[in-house]
Amino acid sequence: MISDAEIEAAKDYLFADPHPVAIAEWAVSNAKVALDHRRAEIVHGCNEKLTVAKLDARVALDEQYQELARKLLLAEKELTNEKARRTAQATLIEMWRTEQSNARELGKAFR
After folding, report:
1. How many distinct structural domains can be found in the chain?
2. pLDDT of residue 111
């Protein structure tokens, strides 16, 4: 049986404001913007005429770009985790509802 405390925790999570998924989405969006901004700084700061492949290599080797890329990966991981948690909490509530429904039906059968 699913406890009332588990249901309350699931409801608290699902009704959180701002929701952790929204916060994680915002973090991913900001990380993408920062990464794009750094790429633009590198490309526009390059005075040499380089091929696209060489520009991409220069961008990939930039330490600040690499750090921003790591931050983006962490933000995307957090978003994935929060979406999974949201799904798990919603599933828990559905399981509880099924338990409650089955208990009501069982009670009707013994009347």
Report:
1. 1
2. 59
